[in-house]
Amino acid sequence: MATTPDPGTEQPVAGPEEPMLVAVRDPDGDRAVVDWAAARAASLSAPVTVLHAVADPGLLPPGSSFADEVKRGRELIGREASRVVGEHPDLRVGTYLHCGGIVEALLGLAATAPMLVLGADRKDAASGEFKGSVALQVALNSSAPVVVVPPTDHAAAGSKPGGVVVGVDGSGMSRSALLRAAEEAARTGTTLTVVTTVGAAAEASLAEPEMLAGVRAQFPGLEVRWTVDDVNGPVRALSLQAAGAALLVIGRHGSGARSAMSLGSVTHKLLLDPPCPTLVITRTSVPAEA
């Protein structure tokens, strides 16, 4: 079923910019996600749309009312939109209610959205198993950059002193991730930490790669730290460096000169337990203010 604007709540403000999309699945668990997206949109003077999905009528449990589900969905995004406007009075906030899967909704809107923001997939407290794979499916299939926010992250976007962390492996995608990370760090006035790892049998140089010289030239006032982890694997290395960071930036795929930093598999594992808000670069050409 096609995604349509929800007629019962506030609509996106018309303008030349497409709104950032933030998905709300659980009103309690996703509060930090909405806060992060709202703070980022406010810092960019950009619009944001709060999105929620209700199941198709044919997929509802017996005895459930589709009308009630729609009503609850409208109330949820309406409350979140009102809360965000209360915290950011000048922010342009809209709502969108989708009938169908949340993955379907986000991937369908990714073609025009500058960024998708959603919460990390949650684990069952008793079994430890994941309750679905929404964040993973969206991040691995979206045509737009995706930010996955962990449930424990309650800071405003870009407000933490931990800086921006990026993983590189020498591939073209990791170069795009590096450039995007530099833009993010420069925009928020924080430090950039560039991380790579060395495999047990690799003979990689500990010297800074050539692409860092380009970043330093393009952003002369940016503090750049180059870190080579020759002890841990890429997932552990990035998790350690990004703990407490404002943002972790990674490429969706990677198979470059440093094969130990294979960002395809690394992305998959990091998104299961992101150490901080994690931006997945999904386009080779990335706009500066998405």
UniProtKB/TrEMBL annotation:
Entry superkingdom: Bacteria
GO molecular function, one term: ATP binding
Pfam families found in the cross-reference section: Usp (PF00582)
Protein name stated in the entry: Universal stress protein
Family: Belongs to the universal stress protein A family.
Organism of provenance: Arthrobacter echini
Domain UspA intervals: 19-150, 164-281
Signal sequence extent: none
Keywords: ATP-binding, Nucleotide-binding
UniProt key word Glycoprotein: no
